[in-house]
Amino acid sequence: MTEKETTQVKMEDVQAKADEKKCPVQQSLVFVEEFLAGPMCGKCFPCSMGSYEARIRLKRVVDGNASDEDIDKVNAISSHMLVASMCKRGKDTAKYILEHIVSSDFRDHLTGLCAKNECLEHVKYIIIPEKCTMCGDCLDACKDNAILGERKKPYLSGYTPFEIVQKRCTKCGECMKVCKFDAVKLLSAREMAEKEPAGV
Ligand code: SF4
Ligand code: SF4
Ligand code: SF4
């Protein structure tokens, strides 16, 4: 690992960015990413290699591709970084991860649940037909053309019901914000599995 040029980013800025998130996995990942992009200088192996590997494994947790081993490894890497890093910056990074990895929310990601609904691979937006009044507000709000449906007109029958095309949905949440009828719901992966046991 060669030394890299560090930027003027301070560790306080790194933490402030990470603290903007609510999910402990996201917080840890953002912390490591900001640290790698800024204050991490590459002078010592435990911190530089540790941060790179922690980032890869944390990303797997966020993306829903992780196993128990990934979380155990992040724990081990961070513990090693805490002891062996040459300066406070590496130790503070390790400390931040270790403080967040103990949250039960962290390992819940392995079962498809992001309790804070921030890890997008673990959530899905759906429209509940019984609540949808076919007003069409979500249609206007969706910039990704991910919503199908036809505004209800009193003099017509046989409307196309509103639904979200999951392949197009970027999970921006705008439809949920504009719906006045509470008809857009955010489902966790666990709720999806319960609703759709066949994995639809
Ligand atoms: S612990 Fe400090 S010296 Fe070592 S790579 Fe990290 S920032 Fe550089
Ligand atoms: S905004 Fe809500 S009620 Fe209106 S069409 Fe969309 S989901 Fe249905
Ligand atoms: S979450 Fe965003 S992209 Fe997905 S359907 Fe709603 S508005 Fe469209």
Describe the fold and architecture:
- With 200 residues, the chain is mainly alpha-helical.
- It folds into two domains: 11-111, de novo design (two linked rop proteins) (Up-down Bundle); 120-195, Alpha-Beta Plaits.
- The protein is built from nine helices and four strands, in the order ααααααβαββαβα.
- The strands form two sheets. The chain has a two-stranded antiparallel sheet with strand order 1-4.
- α2 (24-37) crosses α3 (45-63).
- The longest helix is centred in the N-terminal third of the chain and has 19 residues, at 45-63.
- The protein is elongated and about 75 Å long.
- Bound molecules: iron/sulfur cluster (SF4) (3 copies).
Structural key phrases:
7% strand; binds iron/sulfur cluster; de novo design (two linked rop proteins); two-stranded antiparallel ribbon; 48% helix; 200 residues; Alpha-Beta Plaits
Q: Residue share in helices?
A: 40-55%
Portion in strands: 5-15%
- Identify the overall geometry: elongated
Strand element count: 4
Name given to the CATH architecture of the largest domain = Up-down Bundle
CATH fold-level topology of the largest domain: de novo design (two linked rop proteins)
H/E order of the elements? Answer: HHHHHHEHEEHEH
Low-confidence stretches: none
Q: Compute the separation of the termini in Å.
A: 45 Å
Alpha-carbon Rg, integer:
21 Å
Average per-residue pLDDT, rounded, comes to 90
Number of self-contained structural domains: 2
Largest sheet: 2 strands, antiparallel
- Class per helix and strand makeup: mainly alpha
Q: Bound compounds, please?
A: iron/sulfur cluster
